[in-house]
Design goal:
The protein has about 200 residues and is an alpha+beta fold. It has one domain (about 1-190). About 25% of the residues lie in helices and about 45% in strands. The chain is built from three helices and seven strands; from the N terminus they run E-E-H-E-E-E-E-H-H-E. The protein has helices at about 25-40, 140-150, 150-180; strands at about 1-5, 5-25, 50-65, 65-80, 85-105, 105-125, 190. Strands 1, 2, 3, 4, 5, 6 and 7 form a seven-stranded antiparallel β-sheet that branches. The chain starts with a strand and ends in an 8-residue tail after the last strand.
Length: about 200
């Protein structure tokens, strides 16, 4: 995919992790943000700066203390190459979220009950404007650069982003499995599992 002088190469088009149950949503939100900080997908500021962007937060009150919440994060990380950036999109789909009281460590505490789904995709962004010489306005020269001159470097960056993406998927799955509170165990689905290599 291309947009002007920026082209995208998807490493993972969509992966999903889903659980239904009771979760401390605010802690999960903070933990996922910390993962982004730790992995270099933000500049560490509270707003995240230009690398971490919460581009949407939509809270729809359904009445009776129940809500649906949609959140979209776009996070970027410099790759070390001046013209390649790692990009991950994280979509939160939280359906039928309500506050419930549960017992944790012998104490009654408030938690969030509902259907929690996280969708993620990852891509490389290649910015040809940043190439030396400025001759990359011609499509054929872009292809030559990509196929012959930078092929190994691009493949290395794809593999690195794939590793980061799989780490993110594992983080979300592990969090759901370790922190869900449900009398029926750990309901957990992954309709689109890890991307094929």
């Amino acid at each position: 995919m291309a947009e002007g002088d920026i082209e995208y190469r998807y490493v993972a088009e969509e992966a999903r992790s889903r659980m239904v149950g009771v979760l401390e949503l605010s802690e999960f939100y903070k933990a996922l943000k910390r993962w982004c900080d730790f992995e270099g997908f933000s500049d560490g500021s509270s707003g995240g700066g230009k690398l971490f962007n919460e581009i949407m937060y939509k809270h729809i009150d359904k009445g009776g203390g129940v809500a649906n919440v949609d959140i979209v994060w776009e996070v970027r990380k410099p790759s070390g190459s001046p013209y390649i950036t790692y990009y991950i999109k994280i979509i939160w789909l939280l359906i039928g979220i309500s506050k419930v009281e549960v017992v944790a460590d012998g104490k009654k505490v408030k938690r969030d009950k509902g259907d929690f789904e996280i969708r993620m995709s990852a891509r490389l962004e290649k910015d040809f404007k940043k190439m030396k010489g400025g001759f990359f306005g011609l499509k054929s020269l872009k292809r030559t650069w990509e196929k012959f001159l930078m092929k190994d470097e691009i493949e290395d960056h794809e593999e690195e982003l794939r590793r980061k993406f799989m780490s993110l998927q594992k983080f979300v799955r592990d969090w759901f499995e370790q922190h869900i509170q449900s009398p029926t165990g750990y309901p957990f689905e992954t309709p689109s599992s890890f991307p094929s290599a």
